[in-house]
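Supplementary Note 3. Input sequence used for the single-chain structure prediction.
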Amino acid sequence: MNRSAVSLLMIVAIVLLAGLSLMAARPSCLGAWCDSADPRWAIIFELRLPRTLLAIYRRALGMGGAAMQGYTRNPLADRA
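The predicted structure, written as discrete structure tokens, is reproduced below.
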């Protein structure tokens, strides 16, 4: 398996897991199928969605930082 296939697989996994995290509380109310007056709407779009996006952002920053340390040959990133 080459790097592009692994990268694509990881992106698909992140998207699927993000979707599952949004549906964890009440799968009966999802996105456009919910009435905006329904309190579950607020739970999904004001609590779960920002937390999910923040978790993805944190992981991306962490992986980017690790890649930069490896690229610049920082001794903290050395595996030895």
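Residues 39-71 form the longest helix (33 residues). The two ends are 26 Å apart (CA to CA).
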